[in-house]
Structure formats: C-alpha cells, structure tokens
Amino acid sequence: MCGITGFVCAKHEFEEAKKTLKAMADLIAHRGPDGAGSYFGDGVALGHRRLSIIDIEGGRQPMFNEDKNLVTVFNGEIYNFMELRAQLQAAGHTFASDHSDTEVLLHGYEEWGEGLLEKLKPSCVIAVDALACSDISRLGTTIQLSDSGISPGSGVANKRKELSEATLGIPVIAAGVPTVVDMYTIVEGMTGRRAVTEVPNMMVTPRDVDRLIERSSALISMGINLALHPELSFEDVETIMF
Description:
single chain, 8 helices, 4-stranded mixed beta sheet, globular, alpha+beta
C-alpha cells in the first residue's frame, strides 16, 4: 500500500516546492516505508512513498517512459498487467523494469491514449467526496453511500461531470462525508425559522474541519480495506494504515 502526493501550480520556486512536497510525503511515510521519490516539472510536483511488493528492485517511482516525456506515480494493483505488457512489447515498447505493473500505465498511455482505461478492466470505481449538508446535525457525523455514482460539487452549484456508470461505463460506488454547510441552513437549524434570503448565502466549514477530514478519511479507508480484503482483521488493517 504505497502513498502518492503532489500538487500543480502555475509557477513554483524549486526549493520551496521541494520543501512542501517532502512535508506532504512525510505525512504518509507509514504507507511507504521502503523508499521515497520525487519529480519536479513545469508547474507540477509529484511525490511517492513506496511499500515494495511487485518488482522490488525495478519498481521505484516516479517512473518514466523511454523518452522521459511521460512520468507517473501510482498506488494500486493492475491485475492484468502481464497481459498488457506482452501486447505492448509486441507493439515495440521497451520496458526498463523487470515486471512492474506501474510501467504498463506509461507505455499503455503512449500506445492507446485514453483507450488504456478500457484495457485495464476495472471492476468498479470508488469515489470519495466532501458533501454540503442540508441539516447541521449531519455535519461530520454521517457517511453517505451510493451505488449510483456521485456529482462532485453539485451541493455548491459546481457544474462538474458526474461520476457514474452512465459516464464511465463501470459501476461507481460513492462515499460522501458532509463537511460544509451553508449559512441559511445554519440559521434555520439554530432558530427554527427560515433565513432571510435577501442576505447573501455562503458556505461555511467547521472550525475543526481538518480533524473532521482526518478522522472520516481514516474511517472510510478502514471500511474500504476491510470490504475489499475480507481475509484481513481490523488489527491487520490498522497496522497497515497507522
């Protein structure tokens, strides 16, 4: 269970970006005790903490393609990567690693572009998002689950594309945690009366939102790990995570 991190910005000062990325990677060092790597490009920084499982010697990240014009950090497991690797080698791609599943992503994107997603054959997508709640009592106290997908940002009027089986072609399981609430809802929840809509509304986060996100993300991660790996005990997952 490796860990990945990074950020994108129009311009960044190298030493400052290096310091920021290291701090981010250090926070997830428990996810990757076997190694660390980083990449700094034009407006982008990528970090990786590695737990060595597949191709211990050749699977270090960030990883590049032959021409060094593509780079990736990856956490996951591609179950059909040997099949895809054989197809890519037959098409003329040269692999630097012995049997790293991560490298398949780089060469696969070179060969198939966005068609790579169809080749990976995922069983489903699990999407986790922050939600805007309509009842202050639900703020940070509930986790909402859905098997019909999610529309990111819809609670705050962001018009982003939904993540669902209709848009992705595979089942989407969504988990959402209410982390923000609008002022109208706060007023109505505390007074029992409708808010004066002539006053502009605004979204509000609780004072301890960082702690809320930390605890809820740990809880959701624990649940996903136990659901996908039923052979593991609560103690096993707790050891891996913390």
